[in-house]
From TrEMBL:
Residues 43-121 form the Cytochrome c domain. PANTHER family: CBB3-TYPE CYTOCHROME C OXIDASE SUBUNIT FIXP. This is Cbb3-type cytochrome c oxidase subunit III. GO terms for molecular function: electron transfer activity; heme binding; metal ion binding. Keywords: Heme, Iron, Metal-binding, Signal. Pfam families: Cytochrome_CBB3. Gene3D superfamilies: Cytochrome c-like domain. Residues 1-21 form the signal peptide. InterPro entries: Cyt_c-like_dom (IPR009056), Cyt_c-like_dom_sf (IPR036909), Cytochrome_c_Oxidase_Subunit (IPR050597).
Amino acid sequence: MRSGFVRFARTLLVVFFAANALESCLLSPALAQSAEPDLTSPKLIDAGRVQFAENCVYCHGDSGSGGKAGPLAGRTDLTADYVFQTITNGKRVGSLVMPTWGLSLDKPTIWSLTAYVMSLQAKK
């Protein structure tokens, strides 16, 4: 009987440590994705420009000049966190609705869009 308990305890320890190691492996990429990247990176801004052309120009116009929604170019009141959260969660202002993109775009893509929108602040 004691041998069965020792075997059970050993198996339980192996499962515990394996699960702990797996959790660490799975959690690390998620934490890395949530960190804010360098939003001035030309590569990130270019990736955001491509995504903007595919998903955003209908409402925000070419190069963020404005369309159905207001312009993004030249705005200095937007913070990176605000842009990221708005893209992720969407927003409603009166009759204008910014769709929620967090369900269809991954965090790196949303960060690239954020980088592109932030790069538009210097432009009018």
